[in-house]
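dumping this here before i forget
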Amino acid sequence: MLTKTPLFSENIIQLGFVVGTRKATLVLLLVLALFFVSFPMIKVDAQAQPIVVPDDYSTIQDAINNANEGNTIFVKEGVYFEHIKIDKSLFLVGEDKESTVINAQQEGPTILVLQNNVTLIGFTILNGITPASPTPYFPWVARPAGIHLLHVSNCKITNNKIENTGCGIWLYNSHNNQIRENQVINNSNSMRLELSSNNTIESNHLKNCFDGIIFTSSGNNIVKNNNIVNASNQFGVMGENISHYTNHVENSNKIDNKPIYYWIDKTNQVVPSDAGYVGLVNCENITVQNTNITKNNEAILLAFTEKSIITNNFLVNNKFGIQLYESSDNLIIDNSIIANSNDGIKIDASHQNNITQNTITNNKDSGISLHNFSTQNNINNNYMSKNYRGLSFNEASENHVIGNQISETFMSILFYSACNYNNIIANNMSNSDSGIWFERAAPYSKGNNIIGNLISSNQRFGILARSVSDNKIQNNTIKNNEYGISISGDSAQNNIITGNNITSNSETGLSLGRTSAIVYYNNFINNTQDINCESTNIWNKEKEGNYWNNYTGIDNNGDGIGDTPYVINENNQDNYPLMEPVIIPEFPSMTTLISGLSIVLVLSIIYRRRFFGKKENEEK
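structure:
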């Protein structure tokens, strides 16, 4: 025999009579109106009665455990000291958001949702800070959160107040959910979406937290009318492919009352200068200028974007000042990028960008970092000071670093792994712990040119190179460091050191460990120890060696070469020591060099844009 299966509307009205108060009935009718608009009808068994807490069960969890799929649980006003696992499709409704409180007593998540089609409305949710110990209720994959949606879809989280939790609302691998009209206040983080798509995040108020709204590998979400106030890391998007960045973020979202401009597929436009955050995804020829952006995961994001200009922006106290991902042929010029908690500019899998004339200071990681096979970027004439590192390279090759001023860092330039054929030319690297540092990390770096730099007054190394090969160190002035140049490692082979002034280093001018190097035409002057050498190396090219200021031999035939070798140790000697210092060819003056490079750079960008613009118009 078939039984009648009433709609959720009938269930809600029945619940209103059961609870027996006008206030409760009004709350439930409001819930009904919301669900008619937002969700498909959910049917319940005809014999099922609404469950009321604490009338039917003293705790919310007991009510859930005894509920059937599709039941409605109404929770009266009061404070409920528990954390909750929802593993059934049901409606959990609080009588009044301000006075219906679920307090997890510091053990979170406060509410863990493990089933689809769950609705949660009208609660204050507190104290889900520390992850609960792994139990059948809270597996290790659960995060410390107020509300944690884990592998679920078609849930609705509406009109809740969430305070003092690890993360207010955390979605992991969860899709097609609606997060609306919640107050998320005084949490470590407000809202995170990981591997989560097609969700709607609308009209939430997020305040006094570290993270505001952060997307990680999450796409096609709708984000509108949210208000983020006083967060340290207010908005950010991270991912690995274009779908992760394709979120529909309206400028109705506000960060400290400034709009978010998150543009997709736009061309030939200028971002308004009142931006609180700028995201450019698959855009071309966009200009971002004259903004003042603070407290985001990245102030300006370029993802899959090209031929755009970022100029005259003030980017301070973000995690990253500017982040480029899979973006090429952009110009970043004349920006102030200061006191960000990670890198000033992060270049990730991006090519042929021009970074010039920026002031990049006091960033806690690198002033500029290049990662993930970023190639052929030009980094010219920037001022970088008081960053942890000036520049860092990891799996980045064929880039050009020319004419930069780098000072007061731990390392002026770090090469980590697989950094090949980069050109480091005419930079001033001074007053840091170390100048250029090649880390011993496989695959090792090779084929880099370090030419015409001033590397001075560093506390330890002018250049430290470990396990690198086929690099050229040429025409540099390396002075007043503890160690001028130090090269070591069995893989450090065929490095050429030529035409350098290596002077007044307090410990050693040149230190060569288990390596082979070709060393000629250098000046070794006033170092405490000119050479510390553990391996056999080559000290001349044809009949020209190096100049040693402590060489005591003579030149009877006046050919400028000493008549006796300069003995370094039993395995090394310079057979053709020079009697006079080498005149090191000077590069053009810094001002001339940089001015010329800047003019060529700007003209080339203008030409490319006009050419491509003309070509596109002709094709149209």
